[in-house]
Each structure stands twice: as structure tokens, then as C-alpha cells.
Design a protein that fits this description.
Layout (H helix, E strand, L loop, with lengths): L1 H24 L6 H6 L6 H12 L2 H14 L3 H31 L4 H8 L3 H33 L6 H50 L2 H5 L6 H7 L8 H17 L1 H4 L8 H31 L10 H9 L2 H38 L6 H23 L6 H24 L5 H20 L6 E2 L2 E2 H19 L19
Antiparallel strand pairs: 1-2
Length: 491
Amino acid sequence: MSLAIQLGIIVGYLLLALAIGLLAYRLTDRTAEDFYLASRTVGTVVLLFTTFATLLSAFTFFAGPNMAYAWGPEWILVMGLMDGIIFAVLWYVVGYKQWLLGQRYDYVTLGEMLGDRFASSGLRGLVAGISLVWLFPYVMLQQVGAGTALEALTDGAVSYAMGAGLLTVFMICYVVVAGFRGVAWTDTLQGAFMLVTTWLAFAWVLVAVGGLEAATGTLGDSPATAEFLALGSANYTPQWMLSTAITIGFGVAMFPQVNQRFFVAGSKRVVKRSFALWPILCVLLFVPSFLLGVWARGLGLEMGESGNILPVVLNEYTPVWFAAVVVAGAMAAMMSSSDSMLLSGSSYFTRDLYRPFVEADLSDRREDLIARAGVVCFAVATFLASLYNPATLFELGDAAFGGFAQLALPVILALYWRGTTRSGLIAGIAGSQAFYLSSLFVPPLPGSYAGWTAGVVGMLLGAALTVAVSWATASTVADRRSRYFDISSDD
């Protein structure tokens, strides 16, 4: 009976998300721009929550509490505070400028904007190709998270493959049908649902264990747990904390599904309100979810075979039905990330690879059809890869954040420095990516430098290469460059 209740709650929620997508389909124009960006008409609440829900993934709900359980509560500072502030600043620095450019020139993707800025289809394809490479493991991360969560919640009655497949099927259905409008509407529901269920779980566990003192009282009783609570411990050096916050914050701004949201706002006021409210939402979600991981360490709970502590805490201290509701919230987080990634990945493929290199005179209607087919292909490919479960959730997410972060500084230079050249930008992007990939896959190369991760070092290398090569090739700057710097906030 308990299994039927668990699956009924989770499947019921997935069906509700699908119903919202079908409703959005009735209001969706059969054009590529509406499919990708909802015709640039998104308001403050929907923009804020669709961005919020898009970023809150298996990395947040499972990898974050796992890190807090293993290493200590400083993870709240890294994700809950530092990253919230960093991304809010980048939302203004990168996002607002992109919104201004998108309003004037109708850009849909980052690669399209940069390719037009430097009159280069090769640059456009490079940015899209790199983005799709790093998007693949992050979509896979959501499927891995869904599979492990349902397997743990149901004590193996639902296999890992069935859980990952369930998420994949529902994502394909409502993304293909509804496009960005449906994704944004379901994200708004899912963002609110995640906040409510996380705080309810926080309060329920707190009451069940006998209050805050009982939850935290045993954490400092031994030398091992005292180190666990020490700020700046061996696991959390200042360099590591800053490196992680920087690569995640800058990487988020370059994620395709986030970066495209810089183009969708209906007005300048919508953009500004959204980035101002962003840090508040981060704190409201990350603090309770990561504290559950910290408390599990003090309460003596074991991680279990799933490798995720959150289902263990819920199964131990909450009723079956409530644990299923919270896992449904986690599934909402995974769906709201994956659906947007699939949609953005499809647009990067059709707009920046297929259109310029395969079919230049692609009609709008045909592009819309290819985009929907691309969603299916990408989702199936990541699902098949997820069946091998090659790495932990943190490893998959951390690698993807670092890879996207390598794009950030060259892109910021392209947006604000008139002296940036096509050759400089290509050198900065390609050089930093090569360095970062080497640090991941070439064993003799170090993964950190004086405590700073290779992700941060690669970002600085990318900026230096962009500046140096741009100075050396200054005469090759495209004539169209000036129009990108004549746009003001009053336009």
C-alpha cells in the first residue's frame, strides 16, 4: 500500500505538470521564436520562478545535502549566499545587456548574438557546440537524480532505470508539446511547490527529532564532528569555497537555459525586479535543504546504497506520503531543469548549427518541427548515457558548471569592450576550454593551483587570451561592432 501511495503522489504530480503544458500549447504560436522564448512576453513572477526552478536541480536537492552531510554546513555559504549574490550581479552585467540587444536584434541564442557581433558563423557554431557538450552531462544528472531518488524512496521496488525513464518520458511530452510557454508555466508551479515542500520537510523533521537543540546538539561532541562544524576546515578551504562559488555563479550565467531567459522579459522593469529578488529565493531554498543534510550527520543516519541522504532523512522522520510529496518536489526540480535544458539545447542545435551549416534558408515552420524532434533525440541520448551512472551527482554537476564558466569572461569582454576581436574571442573560448578539459581528463595535470580550482584558473586564462589576441589582431574588428555599444538602458 505504501508503494502505491508513493507512486500515486509522484505520478499525479507529473500528470499535473503535463496538463499545464497542454494548456500552454493552446496559446502557443507555431513559430520558432514562440517555441523558444514565448515571444519575449514573460512577466516578473514567471521570469523569476522559471529561472529559479530551472537552476534548482538534482544538484540542489541531492548533491547539496550530500555535501553538507559529508563535509559540513559551509555549503550553505557557497550556494545559499555567495552564489545567489554572484548570479544576481551577473544577471545585471550580462543579462540586462543581452536583453537590450535581444530587443533590438531579435536574438534567440548566445551563439547567434556573438556570431552576428563578429560576423562569424564559425564562432556561432563554436559557442553552440561547447554549450551542447557541457549541457549533456547536466541533463544526464537530472535523470541520474530521478533514478536514484525513486529507487531509494521505494526500497528498490522502482528500479533506477525506471525512475530515470519516467522523468524522461514526461519531460519529452510537455516540452515537445508546449515549448517555452509551457515550460515557464510549469516552472512557476514547480518553483513554488519546491519552496513549500522543502520548508515543510524542514519543520517536520525538526519537530520529529525534538527541536533545534536535539537536531544539532550532537554535532560537536567528538573531534571529528567538531572539525565538521569548523569554518574553513580541511574540506572547505577559503580558496575552494571561493573557487566553487565563482565557477557555479559564472557557469550559471552561461547555461543555455538560463542565458536564454535573459532574452524573454517583457520589459526593462521585469529584468531589474527579477535579479533584485533572486538572492532572497536562493536563501529561502538552500538553507533548509542543506541543513537537513547537516542534521542527518548529527543524528547518526547512514547514507545508504543510493548515495543520497535526503530520502534517508525523510523515510526516517516523516510519513510515507509526506516523503513522497517531498521527492515529488525534488522531481519537480529535476524536471524544471531538464525541460529547459532540452528546449535550449534544441534551439542551440537548430539556430546555431543546423541553420548556418546545413540549411541556410530554413523556414520558420520547419525550424519549429526540427526543434521539437531535437528535444526527443537529446532526451533519449542523455537517458541512455545515464543508465551507466558514470559519476556522482556532485562530480557531474561540478564539471558542467566549470565548463560553462569558461565562456563567461570572454563573453563579458565581447559585450563591453570595443577592442574585442573575433580572433581574440575564439582564442579565449577555445584556450580556456582546452585547459579545463585537460585538467579533468589528463591525469598528470593538477586539478588545482595553490588551492584554486582549475575552473577559476581556466577562466582567468580565457580572459587573458581574449585580451592579448584582440590587441594583436585589432585591425580585424568587424565594422558592425559599434552598434552593440551605442545601445543604452533608455532604448
